[in-house]
Amino acid sequence: THQWRGIIEEYRDRLPVSDSTQVVTLREGGTPLVPAQVLSERTGCEVHLKVEGANPTGSFKDRGMTMAITRAKEEGAKAVICASTGNTSASAAAYAVRAGMVCAVLVPQGKIALGKMGQALVHGAKILQVDGNFDDCLTLARSLSDNYPVALVNSVNPVRIEGQKTAAFEIVDMLGDAPDIHVLPVGNAGNITAYWKGYTEYAADGVAARKPRMWGYQASGSAPIVRGEVVKDPSTIATAIRIGNPASWKFALAARDESGGLIDEVTDREILRAYRLLAAQEGVFVEPASAASVAGLLKAAEQGLVDPGQRIVCTVTGNGLKDPDWAVAGAPQPVTVPVDAATAAERLGLA
Ligand code: F0G
């Protein structure tokens, strides 16, 4: 029998681990690259979705977390801490269980999706809701890790980026080369940094013949990189990317500029439209923040920025089940029927 071994074992020679490293894994990575028919038709391109919601805790964060927790354990840490809009905390909590460590998480009060909170709780993390936003949580987490015996596992920890770059490897391994354009949501900007690092390494070693243009999309109410200044009170329904001062800001600019790419914004309305399109027309259920990549692609296509015939990958970063409120909101209530086939058939429009 053969199963995917997780990103560290699959890409061991390209990651900062040694032969003696004991790997903490939930067999993350190896996620589906799904051809997107409707998006391909709309853009005249070959569009694929990298479905990161298929990771063990339901988001791309697991790629970075297997590295961060593996390293923390190797260094003898007994406890880890992170600031999070939800997914990082869910991932850290799960991997800490595997490693037998205590996990502390700091989340912005009232601004994380219920599914993510449930994950951190059920994995036994110690949760503090901070009276502030994500940026405040990160400041607090850094301060605690500087002054107390607890290891920081946010993406400011460089091994997180190392783990997350493997998504770019998987795409090249599947397609035989890098795409022309890679589109993804941008929050704290760790992931765009990681993808660019992965693509750059594969190109430098000749595994890929080229590198993609990197297109990142922030939510309009939380778009500090687009505005060129810190957003003090970020807002968006896409709580995962509700961030006003991204830690990897300058790396995101480097990815944009070195690749000839762009970083732009999409409105909450555009995000929700893409969210519904993905679910209703591609069969892929993602959380709202994840739909920012697809919203961005559709916006760019409307702006005439997408030449037909290109190969494009959109990362959809997290599973729709994390935040189902947006799926239910505005949808018609299912009707109740008795246990009666004739009535059911009639209500289903079959009769
Ligand atoms: N999509 C989802 C679903 C996310 O959870 C995040 C980040 C992003 C996109 C943006 O990625 O920060 O690397 O630019 N979530 C972090 C968290 C902040 O705490 O879970 P990024």
TrEMBL record:
InterPro entries: Ser/Thr_Dehydratase, Ser/Thr_deHydtase_PyrdxlP-BS, Thr_synthase-like, Thr_Synthase_bac/arc, TrpB-like_PALP, TrpB-like_PALP_sf. GO terms for biological process: isoleucine biosynthetic process; L-serine catabolic process; L-threonine catabolic process; threonine biosynthetic process. Keywords: Amino-acid biosynthesis, Lyase, Pyridoxal phosphate, Threonine biosynthesis. It comes from Streptomyces fructofermentans. It is an enzyme of class 4 (lyase). PANTHER family: L-THREONINE DEHYDRATASE CATABOLIC TDCB (PTHR48078:SF6), THREONINE DEHYDRATASE, MITOCHONDRIAL-RELATED (PTHR48078). This is Threonine synthase. The keyword Lyase applies. Its cofactor is pyridoxal 5'-phosphate. Residues 24-318 form the Tryptophan synthase beta chain-like PALP domain. It catalyses: O-phospho-L-homoserine + H2O = L-threonine + phosphate. Gene3D superfamilies: 3.40.50.1100. The lineage of its organism: Bacteria, Bacillati, Actinomycetota, Actinomycetes, Kitasatosporales. Belongs to the threonine synthase family. One of its GO terms (molecular function) is threonine synthase activity. Catalyzes the gamma-elimination of phosphate from L-phosphohomoserine and the beta-addition of water to produce L-threonine.
